[in-house]
Automatic annotation (TrEMBL), chains A, B:
Entry keyword Manganese: yes
PROSITE patterns hit by this protein: PYR_CT
Domain Pyruvate carboxyltransferase: 6-258
GO molecular function: 2-isopropylmalate synthase activity
Keywords assigned: Manganese
One Gene Ontology term from the biological process aspect of the record: L-leucine biosynthetic process
Name under which the protein is recorded: Aldolase catalytic domain-containing protein
Plastid is among the record's keywords: no
Pfam families found in the cross-reference section: HMGL-like (PF00682)
Length: 317, 317
């Protein structure tokens, strides 16, 4: 494994926002930028660049609908760490996007299900033409059939996208799945860089990420203290500690955890929580588990397990 | 990976007792036995068989100094799940041990540092002669030099011990270390079964365990909800879900977590806690982290990190 072949992309604000409805203060986000920069993290995903016009806002914080004027106030001076935003197909207004030279953003990532890869790549093409680095993040790969994937690869190979991500949306992949997926992506997308975005339902997010990194995957998603939807992500502090690159320093990440994340974890929940673990082992979307965690039955694990494993439930899923 | 080549050894009561000073009620332990038996778990480690005469008791619960009369009251009728106890060198009184046919225990495990393997194997020989299954659990392997290990292997090969464990006492091993260790143990101890006892400081306990299992390691230590010293262990619920053996059923384990472990975790702590993570990444014994967690400075992560990484501290360690 070469010292400098990896890029860490910290998505605490974007993915963690799914947990607290993007209720992060400006000071917190500024502090996160300073900390990640000091830690040597290459990219910070500072939110979604979706359009409030196309989506009910539900009083979400500003990191859900990033605005360039606002971003310039938050991070007036950029350091080494680049800024990234994620967009969802059908939720982004392309007229919202400035050309890169006028933007605080360096990278725009497009999240796509396999059936929408054509639409995703259309967006990628536009962002690419505007000067951005681009990624295509293929979600829910554990539910994709090989023939669909092969078709998508043909489109991807003809697009200018820089990085293609394996997204383990359900937190159901293990090291054998990573081995298989990365081999396949490397073989069929020989010109593209690859990325990994793992979820921690089975306590495998960090392990899967380093196993992929050692196979040559370049872009590695993390979040500080693992903050992210449901079971959360590969933690920034573990990956920064693990990768043998002198640019990385875990100390500023520990500082962020100490000053912010422990208190935040007391207010909102993510991580190894049994309904998320059950959903992960069953290769199911975490939405049913997230729903039950908002009810008085949140710790009725056996009932939840029975619900997910009775044939009627599966048939209606 | 064959269906039936693995044995799960749940050590919740023994290793978890290090967290709560073995303060488990008889009803809880009985319920644990029923649940593990229903889950198909092959062994339950029900405590330490050390001698209260040789060790300050500190008001520890009865699972620290197992007594056969007491054990017979707790588990009058055994089912499929066998019972195990751990002993420490210098803390066990051999006269306390009944011949196996008079005992509730099936397996006695001897924990040993590399320098004491000779003493450990002397105990193994005695327990073996009394009819027990035996294991030798070599602790702190991440701090052992190859020449010491090679010497120990010669002694082990001449002993009747059934299983030899790789114990990741510091939670500092990753998949490459497991690969290396298991290959070495398999090559140099060709007649012995192997075991793994992992700690979860870096969220790698489950991953390391399954990677070892796939390489042919037979005995796999777990604990329910990961309850164990410091960062805790590979969780029983994840391993039972993962191994493709129809004898295993995760449902009774979820039931144990729901009825007992969530409340217990609110009273005492274990798991992914930053000082344990830091100690793991630095390959240090968790005792310094455990000490700091009992002080008002328990969440001063940067201070803790600085303490462990300044040269003076290391020199005095």
């Amino acid at each position: 494994m070469k010292h400098d072949q990896h890029k860490i992309l910290d998505c605490t604000i974007r993915d963690g926002g799914l947990v607290n409805n993007w209720d992060f203060s400006v000071e917190f986000v500024q502090d996160m930028y300073r900390g990640l920069n000091a830690a040597g993290v290459e990219y910070m995903e500072i939110g979604y660049k979706n359009s409030a016009k196309l989506l009910k806002s539900d009083n979400a914080g500003p990191w859900r609908f990033l605005n360039e004027d606002f971003l310039r106030e938050v991070i007036p001076t950029k350091n080494d760490t680049k800024l990234s935003a994620l967009v969802d197909i059908g939720r982004v207004d392309e007229n919202d996007i400035l050309p890169r030279e006028q933007s605080q953003l360096d990278l725009i990532r497009v999240a796509s299900y396999i059936k929408d890869v054509d639409k995703g790549l259309q967006l990628v093409q536009k962002f690419h033409d505007m000067g951005y680095e681009t990624t295509l993040n293929i979600m829910a790969l554990s539910h994709v059939m090989e023939n669909e994937l092969n078709e998508a690869f043909e489109l991807i190979n003809r697009s200018p996208v820089d990085v293609v991500y394996v997204v383990d949306s359900y937190g159901s992949m293990n090291h054998k799945d990573i081995d298989y997926m990365v081999n396949k992506f490397q073989r069929l997308l020989p010109e593209k860089k690859l990325g990994l975005h793992m979820h921690n339902n089975m306590q495998l997010a960090f392990s899967n990420t380093v196993i992929g990194a050692e196979k040559g995957v370049e872009f590695l998603d993390t979040s500080v203290f693992g903050m992210g939807r449901a079971a959360g992500n590969c933690t920034t502090e573990l990956l920064v500690s693990y990768l043998k690159n002198p640019r990385y320093d875990v100390r500023p990440v520990l500082d962020l955890i100490e000053r912010h994340m422990v208190a935040m974890r007391e207010k909102v929940e993510w991580g190894y929580i049994i309904p998320y673990m059950v959903a992960g082992t069953l290769n199911e979307h975490p939405r049913v588990a997230m729903a039950v965690r908002n009810t008085a039955d949140k710790d009725k694990y056996v009932e939840f397990y029975d619900k997910l494993t009775t044939p009627e439930t599966i048939a209606n899923n």
